[in-house]
Amino acid sequence: MNAAITLWSKQMTKSLRNQMEMSGMLIQPVLWVVLFGVGMGSLLGPAVPGGEDFYITFMLPGIVALTASGGAIAGGSTWLNERLQGIVKEYLAAPIPRLSILFGNALSIVSKGLIQALVIMIVGLIVGANITSNPLAWLGTFVLVSGFALGFAGIAIAFASSTDNPGAYHSMIMLFNLPLLFLSNSLYPLETMPTWMRIASMVNPTTYVVTGSRIMLIEDVSAVADAATISLWLCFLVIAIFALLGMWWGYSAFRRSIK
Amino acid sequence: MNEQSNNGLAIEAKGLVKIYEGDVLAVDGIDMAIEANTIYAMLGPNGAGKTTTFSMLTTLLEPTEGTAKVSGFDVIKQANDVRRQIGVTFQETVLDNELTGRQALDYHGRLYGMSKESRVEKISELLALVELEEAAGRVISTYSGGMKRRLELIRGLMTNPRVLFLDEPTLGLDPQSRARIGDYILDLKEKEGLTVLLTTHYMDEAELLADRVGIIDHGKILVEGTPAELVDQMGADVIIIQGSGDSEQFIEKVNALPYTEMVTSADGIIQIGVGSGSRRLVEILSQAHEAGYQVEDVSVSKPSLGDVFLKYTGRQFRD
Fold this sequence. Notes:
- The complex is a heterodimer of chains A (259) and B (319).
- Chain A is an all-alpha fold and 259 residues long.
- Helix content of chain A is 77%, strand content 0%.
- Chain A contains ten helices and no strands.
- The model of chain A has no long low-confidence stretch (mean pLDDT 88).
- In chain B, helix 3 (101-111) crosses helix 4 and helix 9 crosses helix 10.
- Chain B is α/β, with parallel strands linked by helices.
- Chain B is globular and about 70 Å long.
- Chain B has eleven helices and 14 strands.
- Chain B is 37% helix and 29% strand.
- The chains are: A mainly alpha (259), B alpha/beta (319).
- Chain A binds chain B through residues 2-3, 6-7, 9-10, 13-14, 17-18, 85-87, 89-96, 258-259, and chain B through 58-62, 80-81, 83-84, 86, 88, 90-92, 94-96, 98-99, 103, 107-108, 110-113, 139.
């Protein structure tokens, strides 16, 4: 565990020093909220419970999830780079559990995802999202987002461990990432979808991180889309399983890559 | 720790084989017995299997067959014990450019569970050793190649290793930096009692530093011995000529002589390998005269490791 924390701290120090990475990390989610949330509100707003003015509230958890998965992809890319440059060898030659190498990286991905989630929610409040300021609800949301980011970090690390080609990594991971966003209820509620899409969305972990966050963050329960179909405890359960499976996948791919 | 089990050997390998995915045979049965407190140099062309051997001994790769012990610990069954005994620098520069030199060392020490006090103490001691105190607070991206190599060397020393593994420690450095790193390595052996296994492209470096040299190609150790032993068995002489003028024509003429074993030319220095230098010298100098090549300096000497290498691998060692 000590080793995982050391590696986490090292990754965070590196990122904090990289001004370009930091500003990109903070500005991108703001752009999503402002450009997509505000811009698409008039188009998609009528479809969500609560109506047009509520769209920004509706889609805020979706942006959090999208940003978290984007962060995981960037983290996987860093991992691939470190593998190709040989930086991972420094860790492999050290007397530390192999799992802690993976955890250290995954933890830094989760931490950055949480910083971004916080920024998104604050910007959301500023542009008029109708979310609660109850700290417990925010904490619960962060727990869900952490699990989601952890699972996705595992997947990204699995992809990044299975190829030596950054281009291949990015095209594969985007193939994975795109349906995760669009085949979920991040941008539109389940009931507005055709049946096949709804079924696909129901097996997509994104749906659960988004719905769970909505249940916790939106005070007016009647305005929470899909709360009737998906309960909060189910969201936590699904995300916990997703996190475990993702990490397990990442770990086994990592083990294979160092054989 | 566990000193009795290693028979005075710091590194011991028996029948090491590594076959990569796709049936690529990288290491084909390597045996090694390296005594403690010595410097051993692995010499070989790219793709000879040096780095793969190195990776197996440093627990980064599992051997397909065979066993190896470092400081008496088995590299597979006691990998973590081996890791605590060794310091490693890799062929690639493996540094995080965003960190300062001091941070890189500190994180390394933390990874090995060193306490804060011992890290601080060790870092200042090591920075002084390689004269990097002034640069320690700067981010590594501002370092020169030589500074990065020195930093990596002391990073490998952070955790008080007994055995130091250096994969091409001076690759791509200017002669001054190379000489400096060479001095540090010798010091570590003599003052700290370390055992050093290094791979290198530089013959002169192996000759200067190593107690024993192993020439490796196609995954096998072709020949092993002290640098003096290896060179002595060559028996032949090398004539070294410095001068100016049409060296190409001169080389052509020398090549045509029946007793010429090899001719190389680099940096204005022409090396000619012959059976007996003193007997052939006059004729070779007259060839130079005929070719219009002005000889300014000439010497006859015993061959170097580079010539040994050529003999065993059939290729010229380029550095």
